[in-house]
């Protein structure tokens, strides 16, 4: 492992501030070792996020692989003035997974995806990195500070790929309400998590 | 759409929850709205934290597959100013046009159908209590939908519309999630049933309006082989009076 970041572990801890950005800069110049470190940092969250949306394990891996290769391909287009590298990569992953979910038209396909849900291996709590667990606990705690409608709206949109129209249908709420809840829910989450940009 | 309306779309935009058309309209607005741009940036950073919280360990061989593919993939050059390469081409790169689903995959997850029309100035008190009911139901449904033994059965309804029946033996609950229920005349309603030992047991009513939503079935699914839906006169019936428009099996406990 040609880790550029001191203390790099085999499974996805976050490197220090600015480290991922610096790595992407090297990746943009064709540095495969730097890409391997980027992979180590982001593969877990990319796959986890895609799997939440796409559900079918094989399709999820396919989409996650596309996303990671897209990171390699487009590293030069990353613009740190527009946000962090992690945010750029997760936005890319989310977009790809949402596209996959929305273009899966045939109901049989949908059915299979839904059925696949039950075969997704349970998360192995024991192997979970401490840092990752802390992250998860903090997010869970902050999600708990949202109102039910805010939380449902954010989770349906983010983890299920629902449009706000679909979210409104599902929650039996007005469109305007869902738009507002998506925004104020995320703002509350931002403040609780202490996200800065 | 007014500028104020557009500004409230930052959250939906950051979560890719807008239609393509709206998303493009909002992206144009962003170019002229530094405050919105900053907010979208922060909300995307926030959303990335939700991704981190969902992290999973990739399966064996995944790293090797990705790393093996990389040398074959030609990298894009940086964008140079004047090449017209701002957000627009990046967006094109990121997005592929996609048809909207009639019944999105998300239909199987979380839902309430109490017709909570959160409509403005009047009926504030009533609205508040409806919202409370909605939140309560949302909570039960969420629990059901994420139950470890949750089973899903998708199916079209005779006469139009589609549905997913979600059941959990562990929670002893079943939900009927529906999309595009046809309107009914004369105050008729949709009635839900459990099929228990060949007898149809009433399990609740669903109003055809709004046409999309979800309903937790009344009573326990224990001993039920399936769930049925019929069209019944106003107020429902003690036993079905019409041919079921849906029969969905429940997993045997």
Strand arrangement in the largest pleated sheet of chain B: 1-2-3-6
Class computed from helices, strands and strand pairing of chain A: mainly alpha
**Helix count from the secondary structure assignment of chain B:** 7
Number of strands of chain B: 8
- Distance, first to last CA of chain B: 52 Å
> Mean pLDDT of chain A, nearest integer?
80
For the report, how would you describe the main beta sheet of chain A?
none
Number of helices of chain A: 9
Strand content of chain B: 15-25%
Element-by-element helix/strand order of chain A: HHHHHHHHH
Unreliable residue stretches of chain A: 1-13, 113-128
What would you report as the Rg of chain A, rounded to the nearest angstrom? 18 Å
**Poorly predicted ranges of chain B:** 82-124
**Overall number of strands of chain A:** 0
Distance between the termini of chain A: 31 Å
Q: Beta-strand level of the residues of chain A, as a percent range?
A: under 5%
Shape of chain B: extended
> Can you give the mean pLDDT of chain B?
76
What is the topology?
The complex is a heterodimer of chains A (197) and B (253).
Chain A: H1 19-27, H2 32-54, H3 57-74, H4 85-103, H5 107-117, H6 130-143, H7 148-160, H8 164-171, H9 175-193
Helix pairs in contact in A: 1-2, 2-3, 2-4, 3-4, 6-9, 7-8, 7-9, 8-9
Chain B: H1 3-7, H2 10-14, H3 20-31, H4 34-53, H5 62-69, H6 87-94, H7 124-145, E1 151-156, E2 162-168, E3 173-179, E4 189-196, E5 199-206, E6 213-216, E7 224-232, E8 246-249
Antiparallel strand pairs in B: 1-2, 2-3, 3-6, 4-5, 4-7, 7-8
